[in-house]
C-alpha cells in the first residue's frame, strides 16, 4: 500500500484510516495514526464505527452519516444492604431522580463518565460498543468500598466511621468505570506492577472525569482521588494524591498515606494484590508531572497519550511500569511528533519517578 | 489434623488466628480482629477450628477474583503445626469467619 504521500489522509475516510491504524504494518500504522491525530473527525469516526457494529442494518446508514449520537444506557440496582448484585432496578436511563442519594449520585456520575469518554476520546461506553452502565448501590452491610466486578460498578454505603457513601466522589465512579475500559482494552493483570498500572490508569481517568466536569486545566486541578469519601472525623484531604503521593492523609486511626512517588520506595507486599493501590503512586505521579509540564487540559494531550497506550496492541497484560512508560513515549511521538515537547515531558516525567523509558541494552552475543 | 496437647484441660487443640483486610478502592489495611480458642467456650472453639480449616482449604483452591478493587483477607493461623498465613479473595472468604471475627 502506497499512501505515504502528503495530504492523502485528507481524502481517505477516517474509518479507513482507523482500519489502517489498527491492522496495517508498522509503517502504515504509524502513517495512519499521524494522519488521524491531525484529523478532527477521528472522534466522530470512532463513535460511528462502534455504533455501526452494534446497531441493526436499517439504522446503520443513519449512523454512518452521523445522525445518531451514542447515549448512555444506565441501569442502577439496589442491593438493599445485601451482597447480591442482582437486586431490584431502581433507576433506568431517562428515569426521574429517585431522591435516594446513592442511586442518584451513581446515575449522574456514570452519565458524566460516559460523556467524558465519548467527548474526549470518542469512546462509546466501557467496551466502545455501547455497553450498558450497570451500577449497584447500597451493597453490603456498612460496606466501606466500591469495586468493578467484571460487569458492573458496585458501591457500598461506607462504614460511617472511616468511609462514607462511596458514590460521593465523582472520581470514584470514573475510577470504577475506568477499570472496565482497561479490562476491555489491555486486560492488565491485577497483581504487582501491572495491577498498580491498572490502578493508576483508573485514578487518572477518575481525576480527568472530574477535571473535565469542573472545567479545570492541569494547573487548576487538585489531583486528589476520593476527596469526599472520608468521614469528617478522619484527618485527610483524600485517599490519594497524584500531585504528592504519600501526603493525602495522616490520621491516628487509619495511619499515613503509604503511597510512594518514586521507584526507590516501591513497596513489595503480599497485601492489596501486591500493593496495587500503594505503588500506583509512582505512575500516578508520572501522569501528574507530564500533564502539568505539557499544560492545558490534562485529558487532551496527556490523557489522550495514556489512552492510546492502553489501546496499543503491544501493551501486554503483564506489562510493568517500564513497559507502559516506553509505550507512552512511542504514543507521544506518534501523536505529537518525535522530539515534541509532549514526548520530552513524558520522558522526563517517568525519569523523575525512577522508571526508565529506554529499552534495556541487550548483551551482545558476540561480546566474548 | 490438629494434635491435642496432653496437658490441655479440654480436648481442643490450641488455635490462635488474626484476620486482616487489605485492598479495596481505598487501599487501607485494617486488622479486623484476633481470636484464641483458649479463651472461647468449647462449642465456639470447635466451630472456629472447623471454619479455619475450611478457609485454609478454600485458599488453596481459589481462582482469581474477577474485577478490580475487591477486598483481600489475610488469615494468620498459629497452632501446634506452627504459624502460617493464607490470603483469601473476597468471594472465597467464609461468611462464618467474617461473623466470628466481627
Secondary structure elements and their pairing?
The complex is a heterodimer of chains A (368) and B (102).
Chain A: H1 14-23, H2 26-37, H3 42-54, H4 57-64, E1 74-78, E2 89-92, H5 101-121, E3 133-139, E4 146-148, E5 153-156, H6 170-185, H7 192-214, E6 224-225, E7 240-241, E8 250-251, E9 255-256, H8 272-279, H9 281-294, H10 302-311, H11 321-336, H12 341-352
Parallel strand pairs in A: 1-3, 3-5
Antiparallel strand pairs in A: 1-2, 4-5, 6-7, 8-9
Helix pairs in contact in A: 1-2, 3-4, 5-6, 5-7, 6-7, 7-8, 7-9, 9-12, 10-11, 11-12
Chain B: E1 15-23, E2 30-36, H1 42-61, E3 71-79, E4 82-89, H2 95-101
Antiparallel strand pairs in B: 1-2, 1-3, 3-4
How far is the N terminus from the C terminus of chain A?
A: 43 Å
Question: What letter string, H or E per element, gives the SSE order of chain A?
Answer: HHHHEEHEEEHHEEEEHHHHH
Unreliable stretches of chain A: 1-14, 33-63
Stretches with pLDDT under 50, minimum 5 residues of chain B: 1-10
- Which structural class is indicated by helix and strand composition of chain A? alpha/beta
Tally of extended strands of chain A? 9
Q: Biggest β-sheet of chain A, characterized?
A: 5 strands, mixed
Describe this structure in words.
The complex is a heterodimer of chains A (368) and B (102). In chain A, helix 6 crosses helix 7 (192-214), helix 7 packs across helix 9 and helix 11 packs antiparallel against helix 12 (341-352). The N and C termini of chain A lie far apart (43 Å). Chain A is globular. Mean pLDDT of chain A is 87; it is low at 1-14 and 33-63. Chain A is an alpha/beta fold. Chain A has helices at 14-23, 26-37, 42-54, 57-64, 101-121, 170-185, 192-214, 272-279, 281-294, 302-311, 321-336, 341-352, and strands spanning 74-78, 89-92, 133-139, 146-148, 153-156, 224-225, 240-241, 250-251, 255-256. Chain A has three domains: 10-64, no CATH class; 71-168, Elastase, domain 1 (Roll); 183-359, Neutral Protease Domain 2 (Neutral Protease, domain 2, Orthogonal Bundle), CATH 1.10.390.10. In chain A, strand 4 (146-148) and strand 5 (153-156) form a beta hairpin. Chain A contains twelve helices and nine strands. A five-stranded mixed beta sheet of chain A has the order 2-1-3-5-4, with helices on one face. In chain A, strands 6-7 form a two-stranded antiparallel ribbon. A two-stranded antiparallel ribbon of chain A has the order 8-9. Chain B is α+β, with helices and mostly antiparallel strands and 102 residues long. Chain B has one domain (15-101). Chain B is built from two helices and four strands. In chain B, strands 2-1-3-4 form a four-stranded antiparallel beta sheet, covered by helices on one side.
Amino acid at each position: 500500500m502506497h499512501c505515504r504521500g502528503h495530504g492523502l489522509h485528507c481524502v481517505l475516510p477516517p474509518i479507513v484510516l482507523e482500519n489502517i491504524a489498527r491492522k496495517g504494518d508498522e509503517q502504515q500504522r504509524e502513517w495512519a495514526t499521524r494522519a488521524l491525530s491531525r484529523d478532527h473527525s477521528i472522534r466522530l469516526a470512532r463513535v460511528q464505527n462502534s455504533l455501526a457494529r452494534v446497531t441493526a442494518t436499517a439504522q446503520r446508514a443513519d449512523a454512518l452519516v452521523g445522525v445518531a449520537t451514542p447515549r448512555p444506557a444506565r441501569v442502577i440496582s439496589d442491593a438493599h444492604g445485601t451482597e447480591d448484585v442482582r437486586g431490584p432496578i431502581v433507576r433506568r436511563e431517562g428515569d426521574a431522580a429517585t431522591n435516594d442519594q446513592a442511586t442518584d449520585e451513581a446515575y449522574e456520575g456514570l452519565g458524566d463518565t460516559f460523556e467524558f469518554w465519548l467527548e474526549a476520546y470518542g469512546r462509546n461506553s466501557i467496551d466502545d460498543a455501547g455497553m450498558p452502565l450497570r451500577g449497584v448501590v447500597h451493597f453490603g452491610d456498612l460496606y466501606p468500598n466500591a469495586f468493578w466486578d467484571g460487569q458492573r460498578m458496585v458501591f457500598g454505603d461506607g462504614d460511617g466511621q472511616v468511609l462514607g457513601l462511596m458514590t460521593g466522589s465523582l472520581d470514584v465512579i470514573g475510577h470504577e468505570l475506568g477499570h472496565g475500559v482497561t479490562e476491555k482494552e489491555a486486560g492488565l493483570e491485577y497483581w504487582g506492577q501491572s495491577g498498580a498500572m491498572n490502578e493508576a490508569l483508573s485514578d487518572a481517568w477518575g481525576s480527568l472525569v472530574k477535571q473535565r466536569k469542573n472545567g479545570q486545566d492541569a494547573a487548576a486541578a487538585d489531583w486528589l482521588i476520593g476527596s469526599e469519601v472520608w468521614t469528617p472525623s478522619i484527618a485527610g484531604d483524600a485517599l490519594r494524591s497524584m500531585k504528592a503521593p504519600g501526603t493525602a492523609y495522616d490520621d491516628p486511626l487509619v495511619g499515613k498515606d503509604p503511597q510512594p512517588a518514586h521507584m526507590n520506595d516501591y513497596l513489595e507486599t503480599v497485601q492489596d494484590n501486591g500493593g496495587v493501590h500503594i505503588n500506583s503512586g509512582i505512575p500516578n505521579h508520572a501522569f501528574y508531572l507530564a500533564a502539568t509540564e505539557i499544560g492545558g487540559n490534562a485529558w487532551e494531550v496527556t490523557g489522550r497519550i495514556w489512552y492510546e497506550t492502553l489501546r496499543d496492541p503491544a501493551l501486554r497484560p503483564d506489562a510493568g511500569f517500564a513497559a507502559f512508560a516506553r509505550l507512552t513515549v512511542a504514543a507521544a511521538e506518534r501523536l505529537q511528533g518525535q522530539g515534541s515537547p509532549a514526548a520530552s515531558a513524558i520522558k522526563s516525567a517517568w525519569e523523575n519517578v525512577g522508571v526508565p523509558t529506554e529499552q534495556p541494552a541487550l548483551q551482545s552475543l558476540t561480546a566474548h | 489434623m490438629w494434635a491435642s496437647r496432653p496437658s490441655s484441660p479440654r480436648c481442643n487443640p490450641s488455635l490462635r488466628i488474626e484476620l486482616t483486610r487489605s485492598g479495596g478502592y481505598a487501599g487501607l489495611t485494617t486488622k479486623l480482629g484476633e481470636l484464641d480458642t483458649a479463651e472461647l467456650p468449647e462449642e465456639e472453639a470447635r466451630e472456629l477450628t472447623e471454619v479455619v480449616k475450611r478457609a485454609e482449604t478454600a485458599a488453596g483452591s481459589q481462582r482469581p477474583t474477577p474485577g478490580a478493587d475487591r477486598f483481600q483477607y489475610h488469615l494468620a493461623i498459629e497452632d501446634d503445626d506452627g504459624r502460617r498465613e493464607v490470603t483469601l479473595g473476597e468471594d472465597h472468604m467464609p461468611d462464618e469467619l467474617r461473623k466470628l471475627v466481627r
